[in-house]
Amino acid sequence: MGDDFRPANKSGLFARHGNTIIISVLAAVTLVVGVLSVRQTHPELLSGLFGTGPGPAVAAVPVPLTPTVDLAHPFAGTAVEGWADGEAGIVAPTAAPLAGFTRAQVADALDRARRALISARIDPRVLHGTDVGLLVDQFAAPKRAEVLASPHLRTAIAEGSTLLEGVPVKATGTMSVHAGRRGELIIDMNHSFAYAFTPRDRAVPAGPMQIISVVRAQSQYGFYGLADWPGVGRGLIPLDHSRFFYSMSCSAAVRGYLAPADAERVNPGGATPEEDRKRIFDPSLPMPDPKGTC
């Protein structure tokens, strides 16, 4: 399974009409509005156009921008508001004996997979890249270099972006386990994670999704604990993964990193088909269409 990144919406152009009179009137109105806008925000620019400028007592009055997002509760009113906080959103199934593994061994495999996923998608030290070893060390030695080298096996926050302090990652989804080849357990994890970022300009966010990014992640780990496995030994390894970014910076996403939509001042997720939007927020549904990319 591969990675997929949905671009934010790109505004379209209005269709042109052939009525010359209408175009002329609209042009005149646009000019007047434009002049008024320039006069209010940059009056010095009018002096060269009309030969006059503002008097010494006239000055542009900045219009204050009012934040529309409660940065202490950024998820309020969004589709992820009801998701669990942090690792509480990653729940392992009840363990039972399976394919030669005892109940305790299956429970150990599930716990290892759960802790690895928490590190990969929730632990801020791994997300920000300050201590990726916390994730790497949970895998069997022959696979650690692969995990260390790939930002695709974890959520990697782009340089210059930071998560809101004190605001937990939101998570929802499921885990399951089944027998693979002899001595092998396969653990499947299908989750969605929501991250709230510190705004680039704390007065600017027009809505919560400008600073919230969602990652739909489907991961599969293998666990080997009955005997040494060729090339692995014993332990946990990543087998397969797929992910889908939503409401994010495309320039970061194409490099495998996550940054919010406000990093590029774009309309977050506006071009995403409704069916894919449902799949992003509901990990019980199939993964979104893999065709869309940044």
What does this entry look like structurally?
By secondary structure, this protein is of the alpha+beta class. It has two domains: 17-63, no CATH class; 65-281, no CATH class. Helix content is 24%, strand content 20%. The protein contains eight helices and six strands; from the N terminus they run βααβααααββββαα. The protein has helices at 20-41, 47-50, 103-121, 124-127, 133-136, 144-149, 250-253, 274-281, and strands at residues 3-5, 84-85, 170-179, 184-196, 212-229, 233-246. Strands 1-6-5-4-3-2 form a six-stranded mixed sheet. A hairpin with a 3-residue loop joins strand 5 (212-229) and strand 6 (233-246). The longest helix has 22 residues, at 20-41.
Helix vs. strand class:
alpha+beta
* Total domain count: 2
Helical content stands at 10-25%
Q: Please indicate the percent range of residues in DSSP E strands (runs of 2 or more).
A: 15-25%
| Shape, principal axes of CA atoms | elongated
* Residue windows where pLDDT falls under 50 for at least 5 positions: 4-66
* Strand runs, count: 6
Q: What strand order characterises the main sheet?
A: 1-6-5-4-3-2
Report the biggest beta sheet as strand number plus sense, adding barrel if it closes.
6 strands, mixed
Put simply, the count of helices is 8
Q: Whole-number radius of gyration?
A: 25 Å
Distance between the termini: 17 Å
Q: What is the N-to-C order of secondary-structure elements (H for helix, E for strand)?
A: EHHEHHHHEEEEHH
Mean pLDDT, to the nearest integer, reads 79
